[in-house]
Specification:
By secondary structure, this protein is of the alpha/beta class. The protein contains eleven helices and eight strands. It has helices at about 15-30, 40-45, 45-50, 70-90, 105-115, 145-150, 155-160, 160-170, 180, 185-200, 210-215; strands spanning about 5-10, 35, 55-60, 95, 120, 135, 170-175, 205.
């Protein structure tokens, strides 16, 4: 059986970065889960719609403001306005969420439950009872790209880290940030090389909805989520 790789693209970059990262993903011919910041989606509706035709598209707050420093009302506004903005562009519901910097708290969990979110892919650093929200825990907080500038690693050496993670985790849940991956053609080529290596090693890049369905947590992507209790507004 193939080892699952859930690649989550956190999209808050520039138009050029988004364009180049999406082009690399198409070149790699893999399935990716995109989480768009509302402001970024509003500035790049054409890219968002094109991505939604093939990949899974979800939300990543409205302004990429860290949530743990916000009161419940502000958290609710940040989460829900981002969700609404993405949905307006793609013309269908979203069901999942990723928080900026993987930082959620109990108030975030309550909002996600109150608003009927199906899944969350945020909680790297903290563990909470997620209630009715399916938790998909990230394996790693950054892709290899920022390592180039900081410690001078070559692309080939840097993603050996992820080769090790690939052997340790199933599913392997890792991020992709266009503002790092699209730094240069060298970075984009390294990303494509990694995806090809991963598939040759028995990996399969999957959409979260398919991952959940295989674990009897299926949902209909066309059906809007509805609040389960009166949420904070």
């Amino acid at each position: 059986m193939a080892r699952q790789i859930i690649l989550c693209a956190d999209c808050e970059g520039t138009h050029r970065q988004l364009h180049d990262a999406v082009a690399a993903i198409e070149r790699a011919d893999i399935a990716v889960n995109f989480f768009f910041v509302g402001e970024t989606a509003r500035s790049n509706p054409g890219i968002v719609r094109a991505v939604a035709e093939r990949h899974q598209v979800e939300s990543h707050t409205m302004t990429h403001t860290p949530l743990r420093g916000l009161q419940p009302e502000a958290q609710h506004r940040e989460i829900m306005t981002g969700k609404d903005q993405v949905e307006q562009i793609i013309g269908r519901p979203t069901h999942g969420f990723r928080a900026p910097c993987h930082a959620i708290d109990r108030r975030t969990v309550a909002i996600l439950n109150d608003e009927g979110f199906v899944f969350d892919v945020s909680g790297l650093y903290y563990r909470y009872d997620m209630g009715d929200v399916a938790e998909i825990r990230p394996t790693w907080f950054r892709e290899w790209m920022p390592l180039y500038g900081r410690v001078g690693l070559t692309p080939r050496f840097a993603f050996r880290i992820f080769r090790l993670l690939f052997r340790l985790f199933d599913p392997l849940v890792i991020p992709l940030h266009p503002q790092y991956t699209a730094l240069s053609p060298r970075h984009l080529d390294a990303f494509v090389e990694f995806t090809r290596w991963a598939r040759d090693a028995g990996g399969e890049f999957v959409l979260i909805r398919d991952h959940l369905a295989a674990r009897n947590h299926a949902y209909d992507p066309a059906v809007p989520i509805t609040p389960r209790v009166h949420a904070i507004h």
